[in-house]
Design goal:
Radius of gyration: 16 Å
Largest sheet: none
Oligomer: single chain
Number of domains: 1
Number of strands: 0
Shape: elongated
């Protein structure tokens, strides 16, 4: 659902009154959230592949935006996507990537 939300937010007609800073911050936060999510689901050895796939998603979004009359493709958007991916990867590698395992261990009752 997160990926679908990001796709909708980046490909739907833009919100009236949104500023350039809001756009860049949105790119950063969206891709940080995606990397944080997948960082909690995948083991650290999978982080490079997750990061690559998310970067390719960001680049693909910009390619599609270049075809839309109401959106504009920008290299800066991909750089902010990459920044969000990098920050979340660093946090996940520092130990926050175990968030899903911690939640599962407290929520899911294991048979005894």
């Amino acid at each position: 659902m997160l990926v679908a939300f990001v796709l909708y937010g980046t490909l739907a007609p833009p919100v009236v009154g949104a500023s350039l800073l809001d756009d860049k911050l949105a790119h950063f936060l969206a891709f940080a959230a995606l990397m944080a999510w997948f960082g909690g689901v995948f083991r650290p050895g999978g982080y490079p592949l997750v990061a690559l796939c998310l970067l390719l998603l960001g680049m693909g979004i910009e390619i599609v935006q270049a075809q839309l009359t109401y959106r504009a493709a920008e290299v800066a958007d991909v750089l902010f996507d990459l920044g969000g991916i990098a920050v979340a990867w660093i946090l996940a590698a520092a130990g926050l990537g175990k968030w899903a395992e911690l939640i599962e261990s407290h929520v899911v009752r294991r048979p005894t």
